[in-house]
Amino acid sequence: MTDESTSVRRIWADLDLPGVIDVHTHFMPKRVMDKVWQYFDAAGPLVGRTWPITYRTDEARRLQTLRGFGVRAFTSLIYPHKPDMAAWLNQWAAGFAAATPDCLATATLFPEPGVTQYVTDAVERGTRVVKAHVQVGGYDPTDPLLDEAWGVLADAGVPVVIHCGSGPQPGAHTGPAPIRALLARHPALRLIIAHLGMPEYADFLDLCERHDGVHLDTTMALTPFTEETMPFPRSEMPRLRALGHRVLFGSDFPNIPYGYADALRSVTDLDGVDDAWRRNVLHDNAARLFALSPS
């Protein structure tokens, strides 16, 4: 076991947890992941700053790394940036999950003809979580082409990790307004707002307070890297603490510009949170949401 693995394991072991559940990790077809890394390397327009990839290794090594950290369940968040990608990404992700029992079977969607059918197919074959990337996809989540697909996911109770905040750079349809409209049409949707909705933190806390099915993931928020440009308002900490039953840990592994232990400590070292809050965020909330066994 590496020194890094030992450090990570100590964090969750000190909380008497069986491990970590990470709702925001990326596994993709190699050619897609390579292109994502190239975009980060070039500090593309949606990135906007230097962004080194800490865990740039092959797929087998990345799986070994997560398991070495004691991550007992994770996702393979995939997302299209154009039409005619989502269905084949879903096929790849289904195969990956079948070969990777600790991965929560993941799917994605895009506003295009056929989206309702391939989302239905994904749900029927056991998809546990869906990724929607409003920023990269450049689409309005209330696009009529998506309406029936959202209904399928709401009826099935499948959570959706949705990047809809305007960080690290705003997109054409990012921000809270489209999500308010989406929830008005589909109030039963289980949304997991990625990155705590940065930088519109307060607005997405509002949505979480108003809708029982809305959750927040901590991905990259609260870390020194993000605090440099999009700090979480200290005035909102009481609300974040109060919503501890609907906050989930996410890391953005492997695409983070710091170590995994740093991602964990950005959560566990928050002022004013107790061990029950930490256990909920690092493990128990996700275990309940995804009906995972205790150990």
UniProtKB/TrEMBL annotation:
Entry keyword Transcription: no
Keyword Metal-binding: no
GO CC term, one of those recorded: cytoplasm
Alphabetically ordered keywords of this record: Hydrolase, Lyase
All copies of domain Amidohydrolase-related, residue ranges: 21-291
Coiled-coil blocks: none
GO MF, one annotated term: hydrolase activity
A Pfam family hit: Amidohydro_2
Protein name, per record: Amidohydrolase
Source organism per UniProt: Mycolicibacterium grossiae
